[in-house]
Amino acid sequence: MITNKSQKNSNYHKEEIKTLPLLLQYHAKTKPKEVAIRQKRFGIWNEVTWKEYEKEASRFGSALLAQGLKKFDNVGILSENRKEWLIAESGMHLVGIIPVGVYPTSPANEILHILLSTDIKVIVCEDQEQVDKILEIEHRLPLLKKIIYIDHKGLSSYNNIKLLSWDKLLEDGIKKIETNPKVIYDCMKNHSAEDIALIVPTSGSTGPPKPAMISFKNIFFIGHASEKVIKRGRRDNVLSYLPLCHVAEQLFSVFNAMHSGYTANFGESIRTIQQDLRDIAPTIFLGVPRIWEKMQSDILIQSKKKNLQSLVLKKALKVSRKFNDPWKKYNIIFHIEKFLWEMIAFRHVRNGIGLTKCRIAISGAAPISQETLKFFRGLGMPLMEGFGMTETSGACTIQSLDKASKGSIGFPFEGVSLKIAEDGELLIKGGCVFAGYYKDPISTQDSIKDGWLFTGDIAKVFSDGSASIIDRKKDIVITSAGKNLSPSIIENTIKVSPYIKECILIADGRRFPSALIQIDFDAVANWAESESIPYTNFKNLVQRQEVFNLISKEIEIYNNNLSNVEKIKKFIILKKELDHDDGEVTATMKVRRSQIEKVFSSEINLMYS
Amino acid sequence: MVFFFLSLIGLQLKLDNFCGGVFLAPPQKDRLILLKVSNLNVYYHRVIQALRGVSFEISDGEIVSLLGSNGAGKSTALNAISNILSFQNGEISEGKIEFNGTTTFGKSANNLVKLGMAYVREGRKIFSDLTVNENLIAASYALKKTVKKNDFEQVYDLFKPLASRRKEIAGYLSGGEQQMLAFGRALIGNPKLLLMDEPSLGLAPVMVEEIFNIISKINKDLNTTILLVEQNANLAFKFSDYIYIIESGKIVIEGKVDKLQQDSDVQEFYLGVGNKNYKSYRDIKHYKRRKRWLS
User: Fold this and answer.
1) Whether A449 and A492 share a structural domain
2) A196 domain-assigned
3) Between vectors from CA B19 to CA B16 and to CA B24, what angle results, nearest 5°?
4) Structurally, how many domains does chain A consist of?
5) What is the ipTM score, two decimals?
C-alpha cells in the first residue's frame, strides 16, 4: 500500500498515491497527531487528528458495507458543513462508495430530483429539518434503504424503520471491523485512479441540476496543477463555510486539504462566520463575489460613521487606491508610505474581517467587479480571481501573483488549454475536464466534444494566454433597439454600491435597460438609523421614500461607469429578499432570471408602462 | 433650426443621464397616531443591548400587541416608553418616543401618567397590605387634582368582583381579582394609552379569557388605546388589531391580525397550528434555520 520510502519522506510519492483514501491513510500514518479537522461546538474548537479522522472514516465506510451497500453505490449527504460531512465523504471513499452532496437549503422537490437522478440508496441527514424533507418524498424513492441522522434532537418520537442514528451506524461499523479487520484493505485493493470520487449536482441556474461525476484523476490533476500556482503547505488553514456540495468548497476543504495535508476548520454555523474567521485567521480564503461585496460594504459603511476611527479609515481607503496594483513595481517612497498606512490602518481592517494571516485570497464561482478586486488589493490582500465550474472539477484558471495578466480570470493551469469557438464560447481541454454526467450520455456528449468541454460562457483569450469571461451565453440580452448587453457586467457595476446587494437587469427585447434592486438590509438599516429614519423591518424599510431616494442616487452615481446604452433608466426596489426556498436563486445564490421575471412580472410591466 | 437640433441633443443627453424609479408606496394609516417609537436602542448596564433600532406606531383606539419569546425585548420597550428604565440600570442610547405629539424624554413616569399614559406591570405589583379601595386611592395620588369620585365607581362597575370586596386586604384576593385591581389602578383618571405587560401571567385559563374580555371592553367602552405585551400568541391574535413580532431586540414582522393569521410562518412558529399533526411538545420542530421574517 504505502512503501517505507514514502513514509520517510514528508512529501509523498506522486506515482504511488492516486486516490484520496490512500492519501488519508498516508497522512494518518505519517502525521497521526497533527490536526486534520477542527470543529467549533458551543464556543470551543475541538480537534480531530489525522489518525482519528481515518479511524472514524473507516468505521463509517464499514458501516455502509454492513448495510449491504457495494462499490459504486451512491450515498447522499444533506447537511451544512461540519466534520461529519468530511468523515462521511472519506469513509465512502475508503470503501469505493460515491458521495453525492445535496444543498441543505434545497426544498424537498429539488432534493427529490437529485436523489432520483443519482439512484441514492442511503442518505445522511444533518438534523430534523433535513429528515423531514426526506420523509416528505420518501414514498417516491424506491431505492432508498436508510436515512441516517447526525443530530437526534426532536427525532426520538419518529418511528420510521429507515431512520438510523449516526452513532448507532458507527457502532455497526466497529462490529464489522471487529469481525473482519481487513474489510477496508480488501475494498481498497480494487481502487483505481479512474474511479469516480464524487458526484456534484450543477447549480442549475437555467435548468434542473445535472449530476456531474468527478474522478480521482481529475482531483489529482487539479491538486498538482493548483499547487504550482498557490504554494500550499501542511501549515495552511482554511475555514470551510461555502456549501461542501459545491465543487469550489470541495476543492479547498477536501481535495487540496488532503493533497497538502492542511487543516480544514468548521465554524459553529454559517451564521457565525465572522467570529469564526477571526478565531481561525485562515491562510487561504476562497470567497464568492457576494462575500467580498459584503465585506467591502461593511468596511465602507464603517468609514461613513462620524468618529475619529472612521475618519482615519476613510482616509486610508482613499490612499489605498494607490497600492491596488500588486504587479506594479513601486519605488522606495511608495513602499514607506504603504508600510506606514499598513501600520496605521490596513492591518487593522484586515484583522477586523478575520483575514489578517491570509496569504492567498481567491474569488470564484461568479464574475466579480474589478472595483471590488482593487479595493481589497489596495488594503494589502492579494485577492485573485479564478475561473472554474463543476465540469472542470472546480478550477482551471487563476490570476498569478508573479505575473500580471491581461484577462481578468488569469492563466490556465498547467496542462489546461483554452480555445474560443466561432460563436465566442469558451472551450476547455485538459485533465480537469470531468468524467461526464451520471447516467446521462446525451448531455455528456453535448458538453464534451473531442475532449473539448463547452463551458457555455462567452469569453475572450488574450495574447499572453490569459482570458476574460464576458457572460453566460444564455444570459446575453438584446434590447429592442438591437443592442447586445452583458447583464453581469452591468449588474456588477451597480452592485459595487454598499447599499445594493442584488441587481437584476431586465433588458431582453425592451426599449431600455431597467433593474430590480434588492437592498443590502444591514447597510441601509445602518444608514436609516444614522439619518433618524424609523423603520420596523425589511419590508417597511424598502417602502420608505428616503430609501428610494438613496438608491436612486446610488444608481445615478454608478450609471456613470456605464456606456449610455447600458445605463439603467428605471428600477424597482424588491419588497422581499430573494430566496432559494422561493426558487428565485439557486443554492449558491445565483439568480434564476426566468423565474424572477415571472414572479415580478407585474412590477416589471409597471416600469415599462 | 440649429437651436432646435441643439435642444434635441440636450434632451437626448438629459434622457441618457436620467435614472428614474418606480416607487411602490406603503399603505398609510388613516387614524391619528398616539404613540410613535423611532429607532429605539436600549442598553442595560451600558453593555447589554436589549433593543436594536426598534420602531413602531400605535393609532388612537387600537389594541396593538408586541409578541416575542423570553428576552426578546418586549418589556424593555414598555419600560422605555414609560420612562422607568433607570430603575433597572437601563438607558436609551438612541431613538425617539413621541406620545400624543410630544416627546417623552425628560418627563418622569408620574408626569407621563398625568399626560394620560398608564402602565400595568408584569406580575401585578399591587400593594398587598392595603385594601382594594386604598390601592385605588394610592394609584390616584399623582392625579389628585383631576381624579373624581366617579372614576372609582367606574372601576368597580367594570370589575364587579372588586366592588363587593373593596374593603378587603388586597393580598387576600385571587390571582384574577388581583389582576383586575391592577387594571383598575391603571384606569383611574381615564388614561389615553394603557401599557400592559403579560396580563395573562400566572392565571387559570378561564380567568385568562375573562381578563382579555375585560381588555377588549376597556378598549371599546372607554376608548382606551392599548399596547399589550404577550407570550400567549393565540389570545393576542384574537383580541388585537395590529401585531408586531419582536426577536432579539428587533421587529421582524408586523401587520394587521387578519393578514398575519394567513401567514404560514407565523402560524407555525407563533400560533403552533402550522401542522395539524402536532399532538404534544415532543412534536415541536427543532429546525436550525428559521423562516425568513421578511415579507
Assistant:
1) no
2) no
3) 150
4) 3
5) 0.71
- Residue A461 in any domain: the answer is yes
CB B131 within 8 A of CB B166: yes
- Cα A185–A189–A191 angle (5° rounding)? 115
Q: Do B295 and A534 touch (CB under 8 A)?
A: no
pLDDT for B275 equals: 54
| Chain A contact for B70 (CB, 8 A cutoff) | no
- Candidates A443, A279, A469; CA nearest to A363 is A469
Interface test with A, best of B11, B12, B19 (most A CBs within 10 A): B19
Q: Between the CA of residue A465 and those of A11, A255, A402, what are the distances in Å?
A: 31, 26, 15
Residue with cell 497521526: A32
Give the end of a domain, one of A148, A168, A191. Answer: A191
Output the domain CATH number for residue A147.
3.40.50.12780
* Residue where a domain terminates, one of A425, A453, A472: A472
In a domain, A248, yes or no: no
pLDDT band at B293 (very low <50, low <70, confident <90, very high): very low
d(CA A221, CA A118): 25
- H-helix or E-strand containing A558? helix A545-559
Residues A183 and A85 in one domain: yes
Instruction: Enumerate residue ranges in chain A where pLDDT < 50.
Output: 1-11
Does the pLDDT value for residue B86 go beyond 80?
Answer: yes
Residue from A57, A64, A63, A114 nearest A86 by CA = A57
Q: With H, G, I as helix, E, B as strand and everything else as coil, classify residue A311.
A: helix
Residue A393 neighbours by CB distance under 10 Å: 31
Chain A residues within 8 A of B292 when measuring between CB atoms: 577, 579, 581
Give the pLDDT confidence score for residue B279 in this predicted structure: 52
Residue A270, domain member (yes or no): no
A322 with A420, same domain: the answer is yes
pLDDT at A240: 94
For residue B3, the model assigns a pLDDT of 46
- Conformation bin of residue A411: beta by default, left when phi > 0, alpha when psi is -120 to 50: beta
Query: Are A481 and A468 within one domain?
Result: no
Question: Which CATH number does the domain housing residue A540 bear?
Answer: 3.30.300.30
CA distance B73 to A328: 54
Residue at A292: amino acid letter: W
Are A455 and A351 within one domain?
Answer: yes
pTM for the predicted model, two decimal places: 0.79
**DSSP H/E element including A201:** strand A196-201
Would you state the cell numbers that stand for residue B128, as one nine-digit string?
Answer: 398587598
* B28 touches A: beta carbon within 8 Å: no
Q: Which residues of B touch A603 (CB under 8 A)?
A: 22, 24
Chain A nearest CA to B139, separation (Å): 34
Residue B140, C-alpha cell as written in the block: 390616584
* Domain region containing A461: 286-472
Q: Say whether pLDDT at B10 is over 90.
A: no
Which pLDDT does position A468 carry in this prediction?
92
Domains of chain B, CATH where assigned? 30-116+195-278 (3.40.50.300), 127-190 (no CATH)
The single residue listed with the C-alpha cell 424572477 is A596
| DSSP summary character for residue A360 | E
Among B17, B22, B244, the residue with its CB nearest the CB of A572 is B22
In this prediction, residue A81 carries a pLDDT of 93
Do residues A467 and A481 both lie within one domain?
no
Tell which residue, A291, A476, A461, has the closest CA to residue A368.
A291
- For A565, the closest chain B residue by CA position comes to B16
Q: Calculate ∠ Cα A209-A214-A220, nearest 5°.
A: 150
Residues A127 and A164 in one domain: yes
In the prediction, which pLDDT does B4 show? 46
- For residue B253, give the H/E element and its range: strand B250-256
Residue A495 and residue A466 share a domain: no
Asked if B295 lies within 8 A of A567 by C-beta distance, the reply is no
Q: Hey, are the CB atoms on A543 and B18 less than 8 Å from each other?
A: no
Q: Which of B37, B56, B286 sits opposite A127 (nearest CB)?
A: B286
